[in-house]
Amino acid sequence: MMIEVALIALLLVMFIPGYIQMQHDDWDDDVTTAQIHRAAAHSRRWLAALLAIFLMVGLQDVHPAEKAGKYLIPPYTLSPDHRYGVTVPIWDAVRNTNNDIGNHVIELRTGRLLAPIHGETGYDRALNFRRTLPARWSKDSTILLWEVAGKWFPDAFVLLKMEKGKAKWQIDLLKAAQQSILIRTKKTDPEKFERVKKAIGGYTVAPTGAGSAYPEGFTVDMRVPQGPLSLPLHLQAVLTANPKQIEGYANLDSRLEAVIDNDGTFVVTHFQMEREHAYNGGGWNWKTWEGQHR
After folding, report:
1. Is residue 280 over pLDDT 60?
2. Tens-place pLDDT, residues 155-174
3. N or C, where is the chain less crowded by C-beta within 10 Å?
4. Phi/psi class of residue 165: alpha, beta or left (left: φ > 0; alpha: ψ in -120 to 50)?
């Protein structure tokens, strides 16, 4: 925005002095040519000062990382009221550094970073299966769902509530859903859970280990309803041990539904074990939610 204003000011610097000189024929006879030139020069100085002010303000509004060309604020991240955006690091500018600046909610007017988004970083380009998806905002620009797509499930799936220029709360829906469905699956059939977990221990698609994207070797995906974003927000998650549908391989599938309330609390509303595969080879086998949630 500041660049556009500065360009307008520059055009005025170039145009107004000439316009003053073009209009000298309409001035009173007692106005000399020297006075006209002085008036033009005076207006040029004022407009040059105005241009300098605009440029200084514009530079102050740009975060140092943006000035250094390390991130973008793409249009697809902007809130409906254009107050907020999300920073998206430029892969080629940060790939050889040890400092992952991550994704942040940023205030567009001031350039202030308001909140880091706690999830895997989405970049300005796709990295294998990782892709930064368009931000989903509520109509009033207070709720943000930030998603970075992955192969079998999101690499990042984070919900934030903005209030008075700050993040009131945020919840990592990926981790919350993974932990909730894993605990209930294990509790419902602990013997089968341990047997399948042992069988998939060497599965290359689902590596095991603490902190892994595949909790205890299982694959968990999730989704929320399409359409306008609002609270409470409904979420559905599915778990499978065999996303590739390998014949003769161990199978264990379950499903969970939850609601995120106005305080950012993750509340499980339904859980069930599944007899059919959660992943059918062409995509996740999502169930239809009751009522309007699909």
Report:
1. no
2. 999 999 999 999 999 999 99
3. N
4. left
Instruction: Give the largest Cα separation in the chain, rounded.
Output: 104
pLDDT of residue 211: 45
Q: d(Cα 190, Cα 196) in Å, to the nearest integer?
A: 10
Structure tokens at 119: 């999830």
How do strand 88-89 and strand 71-72 relate by DSSP bridges?
Answer: antiparallel
List the structure tokens of 76: 């697809």
Asked if residue 246 lies in contact with residue 203, where contact means CB atoms within 8 angstroms, the answer is: no
CA 15 to CA 44: how far, in whole Å? 9
Residues 185, 188: Cα–Cα separation, whole Å: 5
Return d(Cα 118, Cα 292) in angstroms, integer: 30
Q: What pLDDT, in 10s, does the model give residues 98-111?
A: 667 899 999 999 99
* 261 touches 267 (CB < 8 A): yes
What is the band of 58 on the pLDDT scale with cuts at 50, 70, 90?
A: very low
What pLDDT was estimated at residue 31? 55
Cα torsion 79, 68, 167, 177 to 10°: value is: 90
**Residue 26 neighbours by CB under 8 Å, 6+ apart:** none
> What is the amino acid identity at position 71?
Y
